[in-house]
Amino acid sequence: MQTMKKIDASDSFVGYVYEAYFALSLLLKSNENTEIALEKFDDVSLIKDEQIIVGIETKHHKDDKGKLTNSSTDFWNTLGNWSEAYFEKKLRPQDTMLMIITTQKISDSSVLTNLRPENRDTASVLKKLMKSRKK
C-alpha cells in the first residue's frame, strides 16, 4: 500500500489569517477615504487617493520563542522587498510609512529597537547595520 506524503500548510494558513485580521483591524480604525489591500504591494497596504501611504509586512510565528534580531531572515527579506519596490519606482519612502508587524519580540541588543515609534532613529539604525555588514 502506498503512503501519502503528509503536507501541512497550517502555519502558512495561520499567517494569512493573521494578515486578514490585522487588515480588518486597520480598516475599522481608518477614515472612510482609506482602502486596505492584501498582498498588493505588501502583506497589508493602506491606500489613500490611489497612493500607498502605509506598507506593512506581517510576520506570524507559531511559537513566539524566537526574537527579531539584526540578522533575522524576516527583517532582511522585508528590506529586500522594499528595496526592490523602491528601485522599480513602486515605492516613495518620503510618502510611505513602512512597518514590520511580528509576533516575535525585538532582541534588546538589536538596533531594531531604535525603529520603535517612541525612540525612532533611522539614521543610527542605518549606520549600525552598515557597520555590522562590513564585519
Structure report:
The chain is globular. The protein is built from three helices and six strands, in the order αββββαββα. The chain has one domain. The protein is 36% helix and 21% strand. By secondary structure, the chain is of the alpha/beta class. A four-stranded mixed beta sheet has the order 1-2-3-5.
Mean pLDDT: 82
Strand elements, count: 6
Any low-confidence stretches, pLDDT <50, length ≥5? none
Radius of gyration computed on alpha carbons? 17 Å
Q: Provide the succession of SSEs.
A: HEEEEHEEH
**Structural class by secondary-structure content:** alpha/beta
Give a short account of the largest sheet.
4 strands, mixed
Shape: globular
- First-residue to last-residue Cα separation: 54 Å
Oligomer: single chain
- Our count of helices gives 3
Main-sheet strand order equals 1-2-3-5
Q: Compute the number of structural domains.
A: 1
Provide a compact summary of the structure.
With 135 residues, the protein is of the alpha/beta class. The protein has helices at 10-29, 73-87, 122-134, and strands at 34-38, 44-48, 51-59, 67-68, 97-102, 105-106.
